Amino acid sequence: MKLGYYSPSRRGGAIFVSLKKLSTVLAILMFLLATSPTFAKASITKTVYGKTGDGKEVNEYTLTNSNGAEVKIITYGGIITSLRVPDRNGNLDNIVLGFNKLVDYETKNPYFGALIGRYGNRIANAKFALDGKDYTLAANNGSNSLHGGNKGFDKVVWEAKEVSGDANVGLELSYLSSDGEEGYPGNLTVKVVYTLTADNAIKIDYTAATDKATVVNLTHHSYFNLGGNGSGPIYNEVLQVNADKYTPVDATLIPTGELADVTGTPFDFRNPKTIGSGIRSGDEQVVLGRGYDHNFVLNRADKTALEKAAYLYDPATGRGMEVWTTEPGLQFYTGNFLDGTLVGSSGGMYRQGEGLCLETQHFPDSPNHSAFPSTELKPGDTYQSTTIYKFVVD
């Protein structure tokens, strides 16, 4: 006997529908609903990534939006280990450099995908003065201090909290940097929220507060390659930066204090151009940096508003990345110190120029340059900063 159900027709007859056929139709409908961007929901999952050398558990969170775009973040360093976005044909690929093992992030990471603090970029001679008092930091970049010192925010395990919704999904990370950590004054409470939006953007919101006057300059340090992780140099990618000036550096990559006009130099990215067109130019500043490793002074209509700072485009894949920020500066770094000794998550060796960083920030060495925008944070005030990396296709 065939199982089914009976329904009267408009002519008084009967329609007999096999349950087998009905279940097939329902399965198809459920699949269409589940995979349609209109109905699919963003999601977040958590897995154990490993343990640090001192035994602390590190978790990895995978954030996925309704389009299938995906970002993976570990609690060690707040590191983005993978970021998969579509190309012009809808194919997803990881577009950031990284490792496959926690031990590599602990022992040999050139800041791949990490949160940077307390102070992103360099501070000259690892010293600064604040309110009449001198502070000495860890000198971990020659005589200078770089990216927070020997154990910056990229090397700590953050507390994590999931933030989910139908359209967007996020991860809130928090950390208490104790008074005197790496030489910085004040107990600094820090919160960073990564949000993967429905329109394929990574939004990063930073907040911080202190109980003693200090300096703060937080940023994010992903190495991007819009052609795909391990696809080769980024020299054919096209960059546009909304900046009339940049900060030239000395031989140790510390700003001289000058705000130099980009006109007629390899640093003029006001109109889109390939990165490779200037990187081998012989310009003294490019030679000092072994490529681009410079801060651009962003043109801003409003000092606190979220404004578009840069646009990166890969002609081969059609991927584009808009950079929006509330920060006054943008450090453009072309992976100059990648030397072929690191085996990446792509399975190959990372060589010079295989990734680039667009680090939104205050200027390098600002505590030692009174003319630069201030990075001082006082008790009772709140540090707030937002940056968005939005991915589009042509």
Question: What does it look like?
Answer:
- By secondary structure, this protein is mainly β.
- It folds into two domains: 4-29, no CATH class; 43-383, Beta-galactosidase, Chain A, domain 5, CATH 2.70.98.
- Helices cover 9% and strands 40% of the residues.
- The protein has four helices and 31 strands.
- It has a nine-stranded antiparallel sheet. A five-stranded antiparallel sheet has the order 3-4-5-6-7, with no helix packed on it. Strands 21-20-23-26-29 form a five-stranded antiparallel sheet, with no helix packed on it.
- A hairpin with a 5-residue loop joins β5 (70-74) and β6.
- Residues 1-17 and 29-38 have low confidence and may be disordered.
The parts where pLDDT drops under 50 for at least 5 residues are 1-17, 29-38
Average pLDDT level: 92
Helix content: under 10%
Please write the CATH class name of the largest domain. Mainly Beta
Distance between the termini: 57 Å
CATH architecture of the largest domain: Distorted Sandwich
Proportion of residues in extended strands: 35-45%
Enumerate the strands of the largest sheet in spatial order, edge to edge or round the barrel.
13-14-15-16-31-25-24-19-22
What would a concise description of this structure say?
This protein is mostly beta strands and 394 residues long. It folds into two domains: 4-29, no CATH class; 43-383, Beta-galactosidase, Chain A, domain 5.
Q: Helix and strand layout, with pairings?
A:
Layout (H helix, E strand, L loop, with lengths): L3 E5 L5 E5 H17 L7 E9 L5 E8 L5 E5 L5 E7 L5 E3 L7 H7 L5 E3 L5 E2 L3 E4 L2 E4 L8 E2 L12 E6 L4 E9 L10 E9 L4 E10 L3 E2 L3 E3 L16 E4 L1 E5 L12 E2 L11 E2 L1 H4 L4 H6 L3 E6 L8 E7 L5 E7 L3 E5 L8 E2 L5 E2 L6 E5 L14 E2 L5 E11 L1
Antiparallel strand pairs: 1-2, 3-4, 4-5, 5-6, 6-7, 8-18, 9-12, 10-11, 13-14, 14-15, 15-16, 16-31, 17-30, 19-22, 19-24, 20-21, 20-23, 23-26, 24-25, 25-31, 26-29, 27-28
